[in-house]
Amino acid sequence: MAVELPTVAGSFGETPEITYPSPDAPRGLKVVMLEEGTGTVVHAGDEVEVNYHGQIWDGELFDSSYFRGEPTRFPIGVGMVIKGWDQALVGKQVGSRVMIVVPPEKGYGPAGNPRAGIKGDDVLVFVVDILGVNQTAFSTHSIR
Length: 144
Description:
Keywords: Isomerase, Rotamase. It comes from Arcanobacterium phocisimile. GO terms for molecular function: isomerase activity. Its EC number is 5.2.1.8. By secondary structure, this protein is mostly beta strands. The chain has a single domain (about 5-140), classed as Chitinase A, domain 3 (Roll), CATH 3.10.50.40. The protein has 2 helices and 8 strands, in the order E-E-E-E-E-H-E-H-E-E. The protein has helices spanning about 65-70, 85-90; strands at about 5-10, 15-20, 30-35, 45-55, 60-65, 70-75, 95-100, 125-135. The strands form 2 sheets. Strands 3, 4, 5, 6, 7 and 8 form a 6-stranded antiparallel β-sheet that branches. A two-stranded antiparallel ribbon has the order 1-2. The radius of gyration is 15 Å and the shape is globular. The model has no long low-confidence stretch (mean pLDDT about 90).
Protein backbone atom coordinates (compact mmCIF):
# COMPACT_ATOMS: atom_id res chain seq x y z
CA MET A 1 0.00 0.00 0.00
CA ALA A 2 1.46 3.34 -1.04
CA VAL A 3 1.92 6.06 1.53
CA GLU A 4 -0.55 8.86 1.01
CA LEU A 5 0.91 12.29 1.57
CA PRO A 6 -0.91 15.60 1.92
CA THR A 7 -1.63 17.75 -1.11
CA VAL A 8 -0.74 21.42 -1.20
CA ALA A 9 -2.67 24.17 -2.97
CA GLY A 10 -0.88 27.38 -3.89
CA SER A 11 2.29 28.18 -5.77
CA PHE A 12 5.67 29.45 -4.62
CA GLY A 13 5.18 32.69 -2.69
CA GLU A 14 1.50 32.06 -1.94
CA THR A 15 0.20 30.97 1.47
CA PRO A 16 -0.17 27.19 1.13
CA GLU A 17 -3.29 25.21 1.96
CA ILE A 18 -2.59 21.65 3.10
CA THR A 19 -5.16 18.86 2.66
CA TYR A 20 -4.66 15.55 4.46
CA PRO A 21 -5.61 12.22 2.83
CA SER A 22 -6.37 10.51 6.14
CA PRO A 23 -5.89 10.96 9.87
CA ASP A 24 -3.01 8.46 9.77
CA ALA A 25 0.44 9.95 9.20
CA PRO A 26 3.19 8.06 7.37
CA ARG A 27 6.31 6.90 9.18
CA GLY A 28 9.70 8.49 8.62
CA LEU A 29 10.84 11.72 7.03
CA LYS A 30 9.13 12.51 3.72
CA VAL A 31 10.37 15.27 1.42
CA VAL A 32 8.37 16.26 -1.65
CA MET A 33 9.57 18.80 -4.20
CA LEU A 34 6.44 20.78 -5.05
CA GLU A 35 8.21 23.31 -7.29
CA GLU A 36 11.87 23.02 -8.21
CA GLY A 37 13.87 26.23 -8.15
CA THR A 38 16.76 27.13 -10.42
CA GLY A 39 18.75 29.32 -8.04
CA THR A 40 21.75 28.75 -5.80
CA VAL A 41 22.05 25.32 -4.18
CA VAL A 42 21.70 25.26 -0.39
CA HIS A 43 24.73 23.77 1.41
CA ALA A 44 25.17 22.80 5.05
CA GLY A 45 26.30 25.86 6.96
CA ASP A 46 24.57 28.36 4.67
CA GLU A 47 22.08 30.81 6.08
CA VAL A 48 18.77 30.32 4.29
CA GLU A 49 15.89 32.75 3.99
CA VAL A 50 12.53 31.02 3.81
CA ASN A 51 8.82 31.41 4.17
CA TYR A 52 7.17 28.43 5.83
CA HIS A 53 3.84 27.12 6.99
CA GLY A 54 3.78 24.50 9.77
CA GLN A 55 0.89 22.28 10.81
CA ILE A 56 0.42 19.27 13.01
CA TRP A 57 -0.65 16.32 10.84
CA ASP A 58 -4.37 16.64 10.16
CA GLY A 59 -4.55 19.35 12.77
CA GLU A 60 -3.75 22.83 13.85
CA LEU A 61 -1.47 25.39 12.28
CA PHE A 62 1.27 26.16 14.81
CA ASP A 63 3.40 28.66 12.89
CA SER A 64 3.46 30.48 9.57
CA SER A 65 5.83 33.18 8.37
CA TYR A 66 3.28 33.90 5.63
CA PHE A 67 0.82 35.12 8.26
CA ARG A 68 3.52 37.18 9.99
CA GLY A 69 4.29 38.78 6.63
CA GLU A 70 8.02 38.33 7.10
CA PRO A 71 10.37 35.52 6.04
CA THR A 72 12.84 34.03 8.49
CA ARG A 73 16.56 33.24 8.29
CA PHE A 74 18.67 30.60 9.98
CA PRO A 75 21.75 28.43 9.43
CA ILE A 76 20.86 25.08 7.84
CA GLY A 77 22.49 21.67 8.11
CA VAL A 78 24.31 22.47 11.35
CA GLY A 79 21.79 21.57 14.07
CA MET A 80 20.26 25.03 14.57
CA VAL A 81 16.78 23.85 13.48
CA ILE A 82 14.96 20.53 13.72
CA LYS A 83 16.72 17.56 12.07
CA GLY A 84 13.96 17.16 9.50
CA TRP A 85 14.66 20.64 8.11
CA ASP A 86 18.44 20.13 8.13
CA GLN A 87 18.05 16.91 6.15
CA ALA A 88 15.33 18.13 3.78
CA LEU A 89 16.60 21.56 2.70
CA VAL A 90 20.33 20.95 2.14
CA GLY A 91 20.83 20.29 -1.57
CA LYS A 92 17.69 22.12 -2.69
CA GLN A 93 17.81 25.28 -4.82
CA VAL A 94 16.58 28.81 -4.20
CA GLY A 95 13.13 29.17 -5.74
CA SER A 96 12.02 25.71 -4.58
CA ARG A 97 8.81 24.94 -2.71
CA VAL A 98 9.24 21.83 -0.58
CA MET A 99 6.80 19.87 1.58
CA ILE A 100 8.43 18.17 4.56
CA VAL A 101 6.60 15.57 6.66
CA VAL A 102 8.57 15.34 9.91
CA PRO A 103 8.24 12.44 12.37
CA PRO A 104 8.67 13.26 16.07
CA GLU A 105 12.25 11.92 16.21
CA LYS A 106 13.31 14.41 13.51
CA GLY A 107 11.18 17.19 14.96
CA TYR A 108 10.94 18.16 18.61
CA GLY A 109 11.37 14.65 20.05
CA PRO A 110 9.48 13.15 23.01
CA ALA A 111 9.25 16.51 24.80
CA GLY A 112 7.46 18.16 21.86
CA ASN A 113 7.22 21.93 21.89
CA PRO A 114 4.47 22.80 24.40
CA ARG A 115 4.66 26.56 23.66
CA ALA A 116 3.70 25.81 20.06
CA GLY A 117 1.10 23.20 21.04
CA ILE A 118 3.20 20.33 19.67
CA LYS A 119 3.09 17.03 21.58
CA GLY A 120 5.98 14.55 21.62
CA ASP A 121 4.22 12.16 19.24
CA ASP A 122 2.99 14.73 16.71
CA VAL A 123 3.95 14.40 13.04
CA LEU A 124 4.55 17.84 11.55
CA VAL A 125 3.97 19.06 8.01
CA PHE A 126 5.81 22.07 6.63
CA VAL A 127 5.60 23.79 3.28
CA VAL A 128 8.80 25.79 2.77
CA ASP A 129 9.64 28.31 0.05
CA ILE A 130 13.41 28.84 -0.24
CA LEU A 131 13.81 32.55 -0.96
CA GLY A 132 17.56 33.02 -0.69
CA VAL A 133 20.84 31.72 0.60
CA ASN A 134 23.89 33.41 2.08
CA GLN A 135 27.09 31.43 2.06
CA THR A 136 28.95 31.66 5.35
CA ALA A 137 32.37 30.70 6.63
CA PHE A 138 30.73 27.51 7.93
CA SER A 139 29.31 26.43 4.55
CA THR A 140 30.54 23.00 3.52
CA HIS A 141 31.23 24.18 -0.04
CA SER A 142 33.49 27.02 1.16
CA ILE A 143 35.88 24.64 2.98
CA ARG A 144 38.85 23.68 0.86
